[in-house]
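User: These chains co-purify. Model them together.
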Amino acid sequence: MNALNLAIADGITITKRNVLKIKRAPDLLGGVVMLPIVFVLLFAYVFGSMISVPGMSYQEYLIPGIFVVTIVQSAQITGYTLTQDLQKGIFDRFRTLPMAPTAVLTGQTLADLLTNFTSVVVMALVGLLVGWRVHSSPAEVVLGFLVLLLFAYAFSWVTATVALALRTPEVFNNIATLMSFPLVFLSNAFVDSARLPGPLQVVADWNPVSTLVQAARVLFGNTDPALPAPDTWPLQHPVAASLLWTALLLVVFVPLATRLYKKAVSR
Amino acid sequence: MSPAIMAEGLVKKYGDVVALDGMNLSVPEGTVLGLLGPNGAGKTTTVRILTTLLRPDAGRATVAGCDVVRDAARLRSRIGASGQYAAVDEHLTGAENLEMIGRLHHLGTERSRRRARELLERFDLTDAADRPVRGYSGGMRRRLDLAGALVADAPVLFLDEPTTGLDPRARAALWDVIAELVAGGTTVLLTTQYLEEADRLADRIAVVDHGHVIALGTADELKARIGGDRIELTVTSSRDLETVRRALAPLAAGDVQTDATALQVTIPVSNGAASLTTALGHLAAERVTVRDAGLRRPTLDEVFLTLTGHQATDHTEKETAR
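Assistant: Joint model of the two components:
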């Protein structure tokens, strides 16, 4: 077997290991499924009565946003699991084996992609229950989920990088929450960014979360001509911009996480 | 033929703490070397360098002909390793853990599965094979970890304090497994804090202190240097202690130690059981009542006291400071 085949085979082995872990300890999965449900109920019924969106129901506007929020939250499982494994001896075991060193991270992120897929499915079902509907072609819907999951995979590498730099689960949890809140709320996920005060609006318009939310809205047909047209490039071309963000995150964070992994385990 | 494990002048520092200070080793193929030393002497650091977990700051080492730094990837396919704490996955079952190791050794699914079952049987874990490791006892985890080191049938095996945390039965079983592997040509480097274990398992023993080898030889050679076995006698009255010391002085191969509170006399002897018989004969002639008498191997403390003139001080605090 050549090096690439080996790396793929090892990656699959580690992915299976991580999927088994999720099956045996479903508490983490429970968390990422519950959180979006709570968000939907809270925003759809508590704030929904106060937030109005021109031309459509708030539910229709909200659900694509919740998809992205869910993805950002679920991706943190990657980082959290890595910090937990770092506390144990299992990485030492892996490092004495003739396996591809990259398999640990690819296996982890691929397993978490499955987690993310699960929570997106749950989200879609809850969305349909509260009145969310798609108004686009099946191809666009599939593309919509694909764009979401690709970004989710890339974002897993971001949390992996943060986790490998911080190394303990407690510190990681604190920092990850601190990072994800502005990312999620300084965006158009819950409200139209055009209504935010000046400087925050600039941040929200360029926030990759906004780009992705806009992409989901466009691909699921949850937009309305009555909504003010966005005036920044990423929001005008949200699908292309989302894919660019995904590529950029992968190009930066895959090598970075790989390097930090080597550093973290050889202490 | 070149040795299966070779280390020359290995140095490893953690800040100001020198963990390894010119470690030299040479282990011929198909033999067992026991690294004997107190916590923090550098045993684990040596094993971690030889298994490619750490890079040495200076010196070089080869295992099965592969350099530990330049040829690390190839080296890993030729070793099995078990660390001091069990490197097993909590959420996976015992069988899944071993199968995963087999697949990462690229044995293929079928062979990995078969090998896992064999080893679970061997380490008395068959009943627990399909339960998540989370529910295992400490000893069971250790056994699973040791089984993990054997999955690939590697020509060179590193076992860091393999019997720590094992009950006597599991310890005896492990000793049998190691003896069998060595008979089949496997080279083993193991670390231990017990002379008895090194004596039982190792062809040669390297005594390690402050990051380098301070004595090397067969168990018999080392015992000769440190005055062989110890006779330990317990008497009924403190008045007898001096009588015993005087009566048995001619037998002693080293300093006789008396412990007034425990009413114990320890005499290093070179003729083992024969010396014990002679000693008891002398004491009967002196009409000393002996409450307990026995022959034992020197402890690590005694080895160190003899070889270095200082006790086997525990350097654990320094070690954890890294």
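DSSP finds twelve helices and no strands in chain A.
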